[in-house]
Design brief:
homodimer; 32 strands; elongated; 36 helices; about 900 residues; 8-stranded parallel barrel; about 15% strand; 8-stranded mixed beta sheet; alpha/beta
Chain lengths: ~900, ~900
């Protein structure tokens, strides 16, 4: 007996099952499963993927026994559908469709209405009493068959489809515009003309025998597995060529057989909001392709209850059954043929992030799934949709339609912001103080812009990528941020920017959708998400928000399963407060340089940089000390007993000096020194490759008095706050270490200052000294570095730059090309490069813990909030990840998923 | 019986030996060895280092039995020297000196003339019939004892030595200037005054008993092991504290007992030239300290033959004996006391590089040592002294003395050059064409300066380190080069530079000593080394040059032992020719970018960069193709059947564009485009971190037509030269790869072009495609990269920059500080950082060979010519090193040493 290749389904019994996707493809398996559930599915059969494999291995031959199995299955279909293939009176018509293990939408071929010929078309006409319908089906079938099976494509790229050409000629001859204006006779003539063309072009007549048609179509579908677009699609999606496709042969049903027929799609829940309701739309007297074509406006599904209450009830019952069966929201296709409901497809429905979260939580509460499954059902990144301010969807759509979409940049900071355009940080601050909402528009941002970024509702830059300064700081602040909008041309002098033929002046309103990267002219209404209203603004009671309930539930489950700690990157008390509201368990990276930009501070900082002697430098640092101490006091008060990792000064000193003539002149006056001196120092500090220059611990080593001041500020602040009864936990982190002796030199300064401070206060504060691992050599020599380091924090931004030898600010010239051409599978600045950077991390952790088994290890690069990277950090056995405040919930969720995936 | 602590030497028999340095210290062991050789050494004994260790472990106590052993040894000394310790008639006087395993010159204490007191001084006077001599010895002893043993130091830092103060007062009282003008009675008074001071300051009388004196001095010497300067010295030189010092007690001999006495130093060979002759100098009627003080001018040793022929003959005999015994050139100290020769010290003599090579070769030919030992006796870097042009030493000294030394920079390109100052490359070329010798003076150099550098005798820059562009290219060209001379201020507009109060104008003569970094005002005579005259200029016959003979011998032995191949970095036929003369076995790095700077080429290159479309770019590349092909043809012709590794375009494109207003204007005219366009492109190409930017294979991937042109030029050139009957071996090397898919993309272009070219020529050329490993990620993912790479070449310059996250052009701001403060043990740009960069190399090679066991691996960074790095490359199992032409012999030698050291 030959192997089983053909799987029948119909009349409540199917030979396949949902778990046979490898053999039957997704479509075939689901059709079988629905049939077995007793759901009305037009009968049919699936030819397994093994046949496809055989077909390719045997030069287009089919395995022995296939023909007999197809015959048997066809007989069963005839029996169930009560009609016969090729019967001129009561013909069975079928569709022949592909169906691979995973969906490859539109990549392979389909033939519909198969079984029609000059005889059977009469049977169809008789059954429907509709000659036009019969000939329309027939001519469509002949054209489709000619195209798909007989390969009758346009003769050149400039040509149109040959059948389309005949159709157009016919319409012209009849003086009509639309296909629907052609009569049954016109269509009948078309059939003849199509067949004539087939004879001319192929030298063979159109096959009138339905069995010939069937085998022709089966072969065509198998062959379409290897058409060019399918091959490319498989390469892109990493689908093995060996998988092959199944072929589904299924009885045709028609939604266009009159007012008692129709077709539609339905979701078991609302895919936009997640609400539990039958959601969808349908058309009366129409075929599936009419819905897709969008010529007629579909009717919302609830109307079906009024028009065909029985069908609607049946659909609801089926929807419930399918959802309970598949334990997930379903996206279903159905057709109503002369009052009878047929289900053609069901699959897990796509949904928005909001819906995903709501459905997952609801289903747990309905007992459909458990918490673990709920956690795995959502994409952590989609949490953004619960947190960000949003535009009113209708208003935005209206704006875009009316031509107000200016351009699209990179969606660096999700959310919606609307405000008046300003072009520099001090204007942003000044306007904000006057009560204006502003959008800061810059070519690119720098640390000097921090205050302006803080004052702005949103930030728009013309240059920079997803990890540019604007993007990083914007995300950390939770600002709406669109970066790298290359089409805008900013003219700072004229205080305006241009894009296309729009000119936007200072003070004009624009709106940024940081979730999509859209930049829209004019004002759009925004509102904060309910989660923010509850957690941060406290303007909404938790119990009043369904969305907050969903957020809260999901987070509590996540915390129950995750093992990674989640900290935040924050250097301002308000950021820290937000992060705690989002569940941060500490600060993983407190950058100290941002603290040097406010008011007098920048002046003292510049005085320090321009100092000629250690004494002058110390005098300037003495001015900075109380300010910086106060910063830390405030942060410690917010963080209470949570650990706070503070990084000593990192950026090169030239970042703190002014660069324009006017600023230089002003500074010279303020400090009472010559402009020449400032310029000379600027020149002396100029660097070829600032990223690889005099920064990080290299500053602290050559100017130990800077580290000394910072250590003193941190430890005095810690003592002050400890006096208030809080168990502060400062962790002092030395950046850019590549050699243990660097760390030792800086540690020595910190320990010495600590001794002095503690003696003065008369008590001690527990503190740690550790280091960033952000240079390849630090990872390579981690065993020695761990001799001095009490903790490691992977600075994966810089580690990625140095490991790849790729500057994040310059990568825009080739990285997009690399991603497009698959030279890199993804942007390593967005997701940790597991193979390269990740290998160094793995090595660093392993070597570090060899020296110091309980070494605390974390990550404070932007990757700490990216779900796949969080999972990787979990796999590496890190203690915590740290990310910007608004990504804390995402990291919590990703950390829980990492545990669940590992045990799956 | 107690352990042996005291080792006697004297009268031809010693208890110690040369190989007992650990126990007896270097001095004690050598005194014993000389004694055993029958050489006249004043008798004495050594107290072992174990006593020092015991002393420190037991709180200043001596081990049991030591006193008795010292007594016994002292008796033996008395017997041999025929005098008695403390005998008022015939007193034995001794010196007490330290002596550690390794020399710690001047770090520890010494006491001379020990044994004198009011009685014994009379015996000394009687023996010498010289009261002044006797009291002079006595007062010196008391002062030294007071200082060293009794710790009588100046009371504050501003004070002078207390004994010196008494001496000065005495001279003032006597109205004399010099010590020698004081009479015996004056000196006698001084003794009394010194003793009075000792009593006052210590509360104890000066010890009159010689045995008390002796034990006091022994303790003082042991204690001096732990004085502050000795501790610091040990830290710097990594000498363990536990080693301790020995104490040498030895009979005094005096070179100042009249005209039949004297003292001097002698070398068994000339330490400057290596010539085999007794070399040295002496003073009649003088003590060792007189030679050091430099008050009297010493007499050359050959004069001793005339003055004291017997002593001279004896000294010659001893010199021969010692050299034969120690099998190396000796540096000896001797004293003649009343016509009798005493040897006080012998040790291996320091020598110049030239001498080291000559002595090593001579000693092999004399049968004293074998070839292996000769190879290990020299420092490979010293080979420079045989190869470089040199100044006349006397003339240079004269110039420095007369204030013509302008400044000192980094000695980046050894040798001597003199010429007239020009400030830009085109002037250098123009002046050279007029027959002038020029020195190119620039703030820093860039690839545009190549032609000017080529035209210049020497290059002087104000900025940049040992691996700056100027230094790299200068070394590769074999140019004299001084870089980073920070004191000079260049004013391009005024065509002059200033340093201190000197102003040097265009056209003024200056001289550069690239071996020392000195910059000297005015003209100095130079001459090429004899090796160059033989090998390159062919202006000297090999047999006419002793230096060439030495070079040749050493190189032939090196080639016999080394296993590493040695290639060169060269991109011009003349460089390649020089490298072959120096023994290069191939080209390891042919940079192609230097080829784009000549005449029309830079224009075509700029056209290519400014192109707006692929077509325009290809048109410009088509102009470059024949020029580049011709370059390769010429290089292949020189290299014949030796492999030539050619790197595709590496630097960022902006390096090829002009930057000054005038150049931009000129270019715009030449190309018939707007200046605006050039500026816009310049701005578009501007990079924050060019080192990490759009360069290397990133260029070739985004503009594959560039790689295509280069591959075509290389392979067509190879075919052309193969037609001439040469078996060319091109190796195409893709730079800056960090991911195998980058290499695959470039390899695909090369293979496709190769196929086309070979089809057209009708034959094939064997060629390889490989990659640089110069990015940490390339080393980390080497297993995958080796799937595509037929060879690896470690680009350790960039690998060091990226592994350390340290830009070589910016490191000048902190690296010198790091080296000074021992944060890094050495400059990783000069020597491979074994621990970090080296670890990545080791990993890369191991992983690469796991994929492809026969993977060819080399190094083409500047480290390839640094001896310690060459040894490291040997240890890693590399196939070859590649370095600039003038370092090829050094690498050959270092490679041989690596083998010999490994088997030692």
């Amino acid at each position: 007996m030959s192997k089983k290749y053909v799987y029948f389904f119909g009349a409540g019994k199917a030979e396949g099952r949902a778990d046979m996707k490898d053999l039957l493809g997704g479509k075939g398996a689901n059709l079988a499963e629905m049939t077995n559930l007793g759901i009305p599915v037009p009968a049919g059969f699936t030819i397994s993927t093994e046949v496809c494999t055989y077909y390719y291995q045997h030069n287009g031959q089919y395995p022995e026994g296939l023909a007999e199995q197809v015959d048997t299955a066809l007989k069963n279909v005839e029996k169930v559908m009560n009609s016969r293939f090729g019967d001129p009176e009561n013909p069975l018509l079928v569709s022949v469709r592909s169906g691979a293990r995973v969906s490859m939408p539109g990549m392979m071929d389909t033939v519909l209405n198969l079984g029609l010929n000059d005889q059977t078309v009469q049977g169809l006409i008789k059954k429907t009493s509709n000659p036009r319908f019969g000939y329309d089906c027939y001519r469509r079938f002949v054209a489709m068959y000619g195209d798909v099976v007989l390969g009758m494509k346009p003769e050149s790229e400039d040509d149109i489809d040959p059948f389309e050409a005949i159709l157009e000629a016919k319409k012209k001859a009849r003086g009509v515009q639309l296909d629907t204006e052609l009569t049954a006779d016109d269509l009948k003539e078309l059939v003849a003309e199509y067949k004539q063309l087939i004879l001319e072009r192929t030298g063979q007549p159109f096959p009138e025998d339905p069995r010939d048609q069937l085998w022709g179509a089966i072969g065509a579908v198998f062959r379409s597995w290897n058409n060019e677009r399918a091959i490319v699609y498989r390469q892109i999606h990493n689908i093995p060529d060996e998988w092959g496709t199944a072929v589904n042969v299924q009885s045709m049903v028609y939604g266009n057989m009159g007012e008692d027929s129709g077709t539609g799609v339905a979701f078991t829940r609302n895919p936009a909001t997640g609400e539990k309701e039958l959601y969808g739309e349908f058309l009366i007297n129409a075929q599936g392709e009419d819905v897709v074509a969008g010529i007629r406006t579909p009717i919302t599904i609830s109307k079906l209850g009024e028009l065909m209450p029985d069908v609607y009830r049946e659909l609801q019952t089926i929807a419930d059954k399918l959802e309970r069966h598949y334990r997930d929201m379903q996206d279903m296709e159905f057709t109503i043929q002369q009052g009878r409901l047929w289900m053609l497809q069901t699959r897990v429905g796509k949904r928005t992030g909001l819906a995903a979260f709501r459905i997952a939580v609801d289903m747990v509460e309905e007992g459909l799934i458990d918490e673990k499954e709920a956690l795995l059902r959502v994409e952590p990144d989609q949490l953004n949709q619960l947190l960000r301010p949003v535009f009113d969807a209708g208003e935005k759509e209206q704006a875009v339609r009316s031509g107000r979409l200016l351009t699209r940049g990179l969606n660096a900071g999700p959310g919606a912001a609307t405000g008046r355009v300003v072009f520099n940080a001090s204007d942003a601050v000044a306007w904000k103080e006057k009560g204006e909402r502003v959008i800061l528009v810059r070519i690119e941002t720098s640390p000097e812009d921090i205050k302006g970024m803080h004052a702005a509702e949103g930030i728009l830059t013309a240059r920079g990528g997803m990890t540019s300064h604007a993007a990083l700081v914007g995300r950390q602040m939770g600002k709406v941020c669109v970066v790298g909008a290359g089409e805008i041309e900013i003219d700072y002098k004229a205080r305006q920017f241009r894009v296309g033929n729009h000119t936007i002046k200072e003070g004009d309103w624009i709106s940024l959708d940081g979730t999509t990267g859209e930049v829209i002219e004019g004002k759009l209404q925004t509102r904060p998400s309910e989660v923010i209203q509850v957690l941060i603004e406290k303007s909404l009671k938790p119990e009043a928000s369904k969305i907050f309930h969903v957020y809260q539930k999901m987070m509590s489950w996540a915390d129950q399963y995750r093992r990674l700690g989640v900290r935040t990157n924050a250097d301002q008390p308000d950021q820290a407060r937000v992060a705690i509201a989002f569940g941060a368990e500490g600060i993983g990276l407190c950058r100290t340089e941002h603290m040097f930009f406010g008011g007098n501070r920048i002046l003292a900082m510049r005085e320090m940089i321009l100092a000629d002697t250690v004494e002058e430098r110390k005098a300037a640092l003495d001015k900075l000390l109380p300010m910086q101490r106060q910063d830390f006091i405030e942060i410690f008060r917010v963080m209470r007993d949570r650990p706070v990792t503070i990084r000593t000064l990192d950026p090169p000193l030239h970042e703190f000096l002014p660069h324009t003539d006017q600023e230089i002149q002003e500074l010279a006056e303020q400090l009472g020194i010559s402009e020449h001196k400032i310029r000379a120092r600027l020149e002396a500090l100029r660097e070829f490759n600032p990223m690889l220059g005099h920064r990080g611990c290299r500053l602290g080593i050559t100017f130990p008095e800077i580290t000394e001041m910072q250590a003193r500020a941190i430890l005095e602040a810690a003592c002050e706050v400890k006096k208030e009864g809080l168990d502060v936990k400062p962790e002092i982190m030395i950046p850019l270490v590549s050699e243990v002796r660097e760390l030792e030199a800086q540690e020595e300064v910190v320990r010495r200052v600590a001794k002095e401070v503690f003696e003065r206060y008369g008590f001690q504060v527990n503190y740690l000294v550790g280091t960033m691992i952000e240079i390849p050599r630090a990872a390579v020599t981690a065993a020695r570095i761990a001799q001095a380091a009490e903790f490691f924090s992977f600075g994966t931004n810089d580690l990625t730059q140095t490991t790849f030898g790729m500057s994040r600010d310059d990568a825009g010239k080739f990285l997009p090309f690399y991603l497009e051409h698959k030279i890199l599978p993804y942007d390593p600045f967005a997701r940790i490069d597991f193979e390269g950077v990740g290998k160094l991390m793995e090595w660093g952790i392993q070597q570090g813990r060899q020296t110091r088994p309980k070494l605390k290890v974390g990550i404070c690069g932007e990757h700490g909030g990216e779900p796949a990277s969080v999972e990787f950090c979990h796999q590496l056995g890190m203690n915590y990840v740290s990310c910007s405040p608004f990504r804390v919930p995402i990291a919590r969720l990703a950390a829980a998923q990492a545990v669940l995936k590992a045990s799956a």
